[in-house]
C-alpha cells in the first residue's frame, strides 16, 4: 500500500510537468507544499522526488530544492539512450543555481563596468586569483602570463595560429588524441606527425628522434587523464619529456582539461617540471564545472605576450567579463572548492563501479583479443581489440539496445578501439557496461 502511494505521487508529479505547469530549470514545489496539495505526507513526496532524480528527470541543489532537468522526456515507448559518448556533466552535477547567485553578486560588485570591453587578456582580478590557485599544483606564474580564453578550444586555436603561420613547420600529436584538436590542425593546413600514446607513455627513443627533426616545432599532449584513453603519464616520463623538449627546442602544448580531478601532490602537471620558456599550459572549466561558461585559462611564454594579445583581439575582442566575474566570485566564496570535492567523489564512485565490472578474468580478456583500461580516476575508459573483433557491428547492436559508444577512429587511432565516457551517465546506469563487456568478450 505504501509502495502504491509512492508510485501514485511519482506519476502525479510527472503529469504536472507534462502539463507544462513547471518549466525547464524551474524550481519545483517544496516537499511540504506538494504534500499538502496532493494530500499525502512529506516523506512520500521526498521519495517521489528521489526517484525522479535517479531517473534523471530532476536535479537537486543542496538546501535549495529540486529543479526540472533539461534531459526530462515524456515517458513513451521510444528508446531512451544511455550515452557513453558525451563529455558533458550530468545536470545534477552542474551548480546552476549557485552560479546564478554568484553572477548576481558579480553584477552588484562590478556594476556597469561588466557591460564594457575589458582587458584583452581577461579580468585582472580573476587572473590574479588563478595564479594563486595554480600554486597549489606547484605552478608559479604571474598574472601577466595568463590569458582568459573562450574555452580551451580557443586557446588551442590561438597557439596553433601563433606557432604555425609557417607551413614548413610540423606539429607532433599523440595517437590517439583529442579529436577537435586534430580536426583543428588539419583544417588549418598544419602538417601533423604522430607518436603512439600507450598506457605506459611513449617510446622515448622514437620521441627523441622526432624531437631532433628540425621541422618539429611543437608537441601537443594531454599528460593527465588523456582524452580519449584515460591514461596518465608517470612522473619520470614527464621529466624525460621536458628534458628532451628543452634539449631540442620543442615547444610543449599541455592540455590539462581535467586538472581538478588529478590527485594533489601525487600526479603533477607537466609544466611543474619545466623551467624553460617554451611551454603553453591550458586549463578549462567545462568538464568539472559548467559547460556553457566557456572559460579557459592559458599560461604562455612571456615572449609571445604582444602577439597573443593581437591574435586574441582580432579573434573576438575578449572573453565575456560577466562570466569571468561570476567565476571569480564563485571561487572566492569557497563554493568552487566544495563543488570540486563533490564531483571528484561522484566521478570516483562511477569509476570504481566500472572497475568492478571490468576487473575480472583479465587474462581471459587478453586471450580473446580484448583489453580494457579502467583508470583509478578521471572520466574515460578505453577498449582495444584485435582485428577479429567486429567492433562496428557490436556498436550498432548496442545502439539498438539503447547504449551509445564512440569508436576510436575519430581520435586518429588506426586500431580497433572504443572510448567510454562516464561523465554524462547517471551512476546507476554504469551497470549497463556489463552488457558492453559481454558483447565484446563473446
TrEMBL record:
Entry protein name: PLP-dependent aminotransferase family protein
Residues in HTH gntR-type domain copies: 3-71
GO molecular function: transaminase activity
Native species: Fusibacter ferrireducens
Keywords, alphabetical: Aminotransferase, DNA-binding, Pyridoxal phosphate, Transcription, Transcription regulation, Transferase
Superkingdom of the source species: Bacteria
InterPro entries: Aminotransferase_I/II_large, HTH_trans_reg/aminotransferase, PyrdxlP-dep_Trfase, PyrdxlP-dep_Trfase_major, PyrdxlP-dep_Trfase_small, Tscrpt_reg_HTH_GntR, WH-like_DNA-bd_sf, WH_DNA-bd_sf
Gene3D superfamilies per UniProt: Aspartate Aminotransferase, domain 1, Type I PLP-dependent aspartate aminotransferase-like (Major domain), Winged helix-like DNA-binding domain superfamily/Winged helix DNA-binding domain
UniProt record similarity statement: In the C-terminal section; belongs to the class-I pyridoxal-phosphate-dependent aminotransferase family.
Amino acid at each position: 500500500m505504501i509502495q502504491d502511494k509512492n508510485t501514485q505521487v511519482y506519476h502525479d508529479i510527472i503529469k504536472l510537468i507534462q502539463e507544462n505547469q513547471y518549466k525547464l530549470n524551474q524550481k519545483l514545489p517544496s516537499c511540504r507544499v506538494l504534500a499538502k496539495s496532493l494530500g499525502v505526507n512529506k516523506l512520500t513526496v521526498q521519495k517521489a522526488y528521489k526517484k525522479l532524480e535517479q531517473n534523471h528527470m530532476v536535479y537537486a541543489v543542496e538546501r535549495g530544492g529540486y529543479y526540472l532537468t533539461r534531459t526530462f522526456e515524456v515517458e513513451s515507448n521510444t528508446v531512451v539512450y544511455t550515452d557513453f559518448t558525451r563529455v558533458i556533466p550530468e545536470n545534477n552535477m552542474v551548480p546552476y543555481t549557485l552560479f546564478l547567485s554568484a553572477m548576481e553578486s558579480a553584477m552588484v560588485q562590478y556594476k556597469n563596468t561588466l557591460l564594457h570591453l575589458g582587458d584583452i587578456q581577461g579580468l585582472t582580478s580573476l587572473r590574479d586569483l588563478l595564479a594563486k590557485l595554480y600554486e597549489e599544483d606547484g605552478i608559479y606564474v604571474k598574472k601577466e602570463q595568463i590569458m582568459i580564453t573562450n574555452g580551451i578550444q580557443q586557446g588551442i586555436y590561438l597557439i596553433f595560429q601563433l606557432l604555425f603561420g609557417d607551413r614548413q613547420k610540423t606539429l607532433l600529436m599523440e595517437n590517439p588524441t583529442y579529436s577537435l584538436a586534430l580536426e583543428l590542425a588539419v583544417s588549418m593546413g598544419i602538417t601533423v606527425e604522430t607518436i603512439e600514446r600507450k598506457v605506459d607513455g611513449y617510446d622515448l627513443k622514437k620521441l627523441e628522434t622526432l624531437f631532433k627533426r628540425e621541422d618539429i616545432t611543437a608537441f601537443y599532449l594531454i599528460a593527465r587523464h588523456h582524452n580519449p584513453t584515460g591514461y596518465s603519464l608517470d612522473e619520470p616520463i614527464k621529466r624525460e619529456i621536458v628534458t628532451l623538449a628543452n634539449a631540442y627546442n620543442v615547444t610543449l602544448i599541455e592540455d590539462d582539461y581535467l586538472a581538478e580531478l588529478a590527485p594533489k601532490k601525487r600526479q603533477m602537471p607537466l609544466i611543474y617540471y619545466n623551467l624553460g620558456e617554451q611551454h603553453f599550459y591550458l586549463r578549462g572549466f567545462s568538464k568539472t564545472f559548467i559547460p556553457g561558461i566557456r572559460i579557459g585559462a592559458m599560461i604562455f611564454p612571456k615572449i609571445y605576450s604582444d602577439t597573443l594579445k593581437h591574435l586574441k583581439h582580432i579573434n573576438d575582442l575578449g572573453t565575456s567579463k560577466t562570466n569571468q566575474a561570476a567565476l571569480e566570485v564563485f571561487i572566492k566564496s569557497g563554493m568552487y572548492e566544495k563543488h570540486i570535492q563533490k564531483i571528484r567523489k561522484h566521478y570516483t564512485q562511477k569509476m570504481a563501479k566500472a572497475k568492478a565490472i571490468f576487473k575480472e578474468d583479465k587474462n581471459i580478456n587478453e586471450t580473446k583479443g580484448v583489453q580494457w583500461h579502467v583508470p583509478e580516476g578521471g572520466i574515460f575508459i578505453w577498449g582495444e581489440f584485435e582485428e577479429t573483433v567486429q567492433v562496428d557491428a557490436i556498436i550498432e547492436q548496442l545502439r539498438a539496445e539503447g547504449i551509445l559508444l564512440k569508436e576510436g577512429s575519430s581520435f586518429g587511432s588506426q586500431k580497433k578501439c572504443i572510448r567510454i565516457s562516464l561523465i554524462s551517465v547517471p551512476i546507476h546506469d554504469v551497470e549497463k557496461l556489463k552488457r558492453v563487456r559481454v558483447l565484446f568478450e563473446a
